Amino acid sequence: MNPLKRLLGYILSFFYHKQIHAFKVQLNGRTYYVCARCSGFYLGIIFGFPISFAMLLFFPIFYSLGPIGTTIIAIGLALPAMLDWSTQRLALRESRNALRFGTGLPAGFSLVWYLVSPNGFILKIPVFIGVLIFLIIFGKIDRRTPPESELEENYDTESKGS
Questions:
Q1: Is 155 a residue whose pLDDT tops 50?
Q2: With pLDDT > 70 as the criterion, what percentage of the chain qualifies?
Q3: What is the pTM of this model?
Q4: What percent of the chain has pLDDT over 90?
């Protein structure tokens, strides 16, 4: 097998997610389900580095907003992804893959943009702790009902154990 295709297959398997929340990618006869939000988030990070450094060098006005201004902008860019994810986890609505991808992209960019910003490290620590707390809380909450296939698998596993 071509080493480049093997590397691409490995990368795709890293992004594996439930079929309902993922893009379907076929490579060498194998099917990969690539998480829509994570794909946008990681692409936002990848493209965020050159864009953020270019903004820092050529458009320093974006970073002259002070620590509070850059923090508000970074949170504002990530907020749509956080709202989409949390309302989906709380079963208030069902998100679509295009929306997941579209909200993940600026969230990934905001992470890099905030890291590159000339804000002091002391201000960045509470923001990252707050984001981690948010992720931990909503990572544990899941009020969505599993798809029928998962319900059947759980039922089969429980009935065999009895």
A1: no
A2: 76
A3: 0.68
A4: 12
Q: How far apart are CA 70 and CA 158, in angstroms?
A: 51
Look at the block and give the residue holding tokens 């493209």. Answer: 47
Is the predicted pLDDT of residue 138 greater than 80, yes or no? no
Per DSSP, what are the bridge partners of residue 161? none
DSSP secondary structure string for all residues of the chain: --HHHHHHHHHHHHTB--GGGEEEEEETTEEEEEEHHHHHHHHHHHHHHHHHHHHHHH-GGGGTTHHHHHHHHHHHHHHHHHHHHHHHHTTS----HHHHHHHHHHHHHHHHHHHHS---HHHHHHHHHHHHHHHHHHHH---SPPPHHHHHHHHHHHHHH-
How do the domains of the chain map onto residue ranges?
37-144
Tokens describing residue 124: 């960045």
CA angle 7, 103, 76 (to 5 degrees): 125
What's the rounded Cα separation, in Å, for the pair 40 and 15? 11
pLDDT in tens, 18-28: 666 777 878 77
* pLDDT at residue 152, rounded to an integer: 44
